[in-house]
Amino acid sequence: MKLKSAAFLTLLVLQCLAVLTVAQNDFDFFYLVQQWPASYCGTKRSCCYPTTGKPAEDFSIHGLWPNRNDGSWPSNCDEGSSFDESEVSDLVKRMQQEWPSLACPSSDGVRFWSHEWEKHGTCSLLNEHQYFQTALDLKDKSNLLQVLKDAGIRPGKFYSLEKIKEAIQQGVGYTPFIECNVDQGGNRQLYQVYLCVDSSASDFIECPTFPHGRCGSEIEFPSFSSLHDEA
After folding, report:
1. What CATH number did the domain enclosing 77 receive?
2. What positions constitute the catalytic site (predicted)?
């Protein structure tokens, strides 16, 4: 009887762990979050350019984040899965260009990529290489800077929030969420663009829910090329 009881308890524990794992990994869609470097650097905290040099004047990836329709999200789903740079060796050059870290002190990006993989990627149901390649390909597919330029929206000026949202909606085909921050002069500026991606990470979709936050009716789209070569 004792052996049967022990076996039953072991089975019960394993089943509970399996349910917890499924629940932890459960999500409905992704946010692809892209940030505008001039807005990251143009705040009181400033920024530090990567050790590879000042990035191009273009949107860069912040992350590809699993989310749920109720606004919650899974995180750190596999503590045993650490970022392994060798798994993405063929992507590193693209990641340096399209997924750089602007945090201080200057870095090669590995710490940033490790954070994104371990917090969000481990919950994505993708392996490490798939996770980073998918985010890079989705960024290229959205082509946000060109979409804005095609609508007459260029860095260095103020625009209505609605005009920016409408330009992205028409160019990408789906409604974005715009996150703003505040520059050193107190102006609200375009900081991050959220686009939603289906749970298989294959294509954009309309967002089931948006993050919270407000921008104001007129926002700045600051120039990155006009910033000093050294942040």
Report:
1. 3.90.730.10
2. 62, 116, 120
pLDDT digits 0-9 by tens, 131-172: 999 999 999 999 999 999 999 999 999 999 999 999 999 999
Select from 151, 147, 152, 144 the least CA-distant residue to 192: 144
Domain count for the chain, please give it: 1
Q: Which domain holds residue 80?
A: 26-221
Residue-wise pLDDT for 71-124, tens only, equals 999 999 999 999 999 999 999 999 999 999 999 999 999 999 999 999 999 999
- For 68-134, the DSSP string reads -TTS-------TT----GGGGTTTHHHHHHHS---PSSP--SHHHHHHHHHHTGGGTTS-HHHHHHH
Q: What is the DSSP letter of 145?
A: H
Whole-prediction pTM: 0.88
